[in-house]
Every structure is written in structure tokens, then in C-alpha cells.
Amino acid sequence: MTFLYRLEAIRKQAAGRVRIVLHGTNGFPDEITQRCIAAGVSKINVNKLVLDDYNIHLKVNASKLPQTQLIDEGIQNVFRLQANQMDVSGSTGRAPEQKQR
């Protein structure tokens, strides 16, 4: 995969001075995302990826469900998709513990 060689070359050239960020990852298989991370990507923008299903849910169900149920189900879809992206990227469970105030 030529683009992975490009990512490797960019990472070497940047030498840690900048972060390598992926945009437009809708439709990326999990394996490709993981290989991009291995090649030096440190940030993946998934906003559209996780919100597309939410927007479809709203459009399809707006006239069928009470507003609170509509929003709650939409948020659950976003949560599920975001959790999946965290698993794919290997970031699940890596946040530092929060100190109690």
C-alpha cells in the first residue's frame, strides 16, 4: 500500500515536530486505520463518521418518536460508534485517571 510508505516517509521527515492527522476516514477498514497508526498517525478525525448515523436516525425517526427518545437513541448510536473507533485505534482505556476534587 503506497500511502503507508508515504506516511512512513512523512513521519521520518517531520521527526516528531508535527502530528500526523487523518481526515476523511469514512469507509476505512479497521485494518487500514490500524496500519496508519502504526505508520505514525497520532490523531484521527471521526466526527463525520460517528455523526452520519445520528443524522440518518433523526431524519428517519423524527416523525415517529417522542423527541427525548429520538435524541437518546441518536446519542446511543454516537456513543456506540465512538466506542468502536476508540477500540480500533487502541485508545480505549488509555486516558489517565481523573483526580477527585
Describe the fold and architecture:
By secondary structure, this protein is mainly alpha-helical. It folds into two domains: 1-45, no CATH class; 46-92. 59% of the residues lie in helices and 7% in strands. It has four helices and two strands, in the order αβαβαα. It has helices at 2-14, 30-38, 47-61, 67-89; strands at residues 20-22, 41-44. Strands 1-2 form a two-stranded parallel ribbon. Strand 1 (20-22), helix 2 (30-38) and strand 2 (41-44) form a beta-alpha-beta unit. The longest helix is centred in the last third of the chain and has 23 residues, at 67-89. The radius of gyration is 17 Å and the shape is extended. It starts with a helix and ends in a 12-residue tail after the last helix. The mean pLDDT is 89.
> How many alpha or pi helices?
4
> For the report, how would you describe the main beta sheet?
2 strands, parallel
Strand order of the largest sheet: 1-2
Query: What's the order of the H and E elements?
Result: HEHEHH
How many domain units? Answer: 2
Q: Specify Rg, calculated over alpha carbons.
A: 17 Å
Percentage beta strand: 5-15%
Tags for this entry?
101 residues; mainly alpha; two-stranded parallel ribbon; 4 helices; 7% strand
